[in-house]
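TL;DR need structure tokens for one chain.
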Amino acid sequence: MGKLKERKDKLNRSVITSVVLHLLLIALVIWGSFVTKSGLTGGGEGGQVIDAIMVDPNAMVENFNQQQQQQANAKQAQAQREKKAKQQEEELRQKELREQERLKAIEEERLKTEQKVEDQKKQAEEQQKQAQEAVKKAKEEQKLAEEAAAKAQAEKEKVIKEQALAKKQADEKAAAQKAAEEEKAKAEKAAQEKAAKAEAAKAEAAKAEAAKAEKAAKEKAAKEKAAKAAAKKQASEVDDLLGGLASNAPGTESGGASAAGQGGGKKSGTNSDGDMNGYIAQVRLAIQAKFYNADMYRGKTCTLEINITDKGTLISVNAVGGDDGLCQAALAAAKQARIPAPPSKSVWQQFKNTKLDFKPE
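>> reply
TL;DR here they are.
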């Protein structure tokens, strides 16, 4: 606006200067038309030169008309310049308004973009925090399983030592009995047969006692072995879970594939309910790892129909019942999840077209 006002002032000064110069020029022309010098020379010796002034009325009229025309032209030019200045001022004002609207729209878009980026950042931080907590929990469970396995191994070693000690004591006792029998046979020939029977009876009793102790030790060792196998199985499942969760943490790309490979190589050829239930639990955990905002769907259920290959690759997943909102979120999580490979062909045959009830936790 300041530049437009300055241009308008300069234009007004130029117009005023032009009008003043034109008026001066017209005055000079009029004055010159009234004054005409003519020299007259006499024929005698005493001739004199006479100055005369001649006024031409036509010239005066013509000069007056020219002056009026010039003034009219100047006014018309001034009006046109003022009109043009107003148009330029209006155009400049409109242009400034459009520029202000454009800058306002750009600022609003920038603020929206910043807010969106901030929201995405907060969501990513929350997801990372949840993943880290899940990994921490899995590590704690694995530690407990390892401690249980170590305890079972220690118990087994203790039983083995006890069995070895009992065997040694039995051998020493048998050797002592044998020496006593030989010594007694030499000393008491008459009572040899009776003593031999008595010692034989004692040896049989000791043998039965040793057999009983050995049987009890074997039963205890079998229980310890079963406990160790259960602890090893639990540790294996925790390893698979840890691998699946670690693969979902930010910056990890290959964890899911590793976990799936471990799962496929531990129980090949089995078809027990325990294998099936364990694999279903792994699939639920894999989907849960990609499921966010679980609190929104607490207490709700969605039934998913899942079709996979024998390597764990997802072929299709559909929602066949349950809460609509939860089903939409569960479908999205299932499509992103790294589903581990089935532990055996028989488990895959049972699971490949199964229906799974999913509840967010």
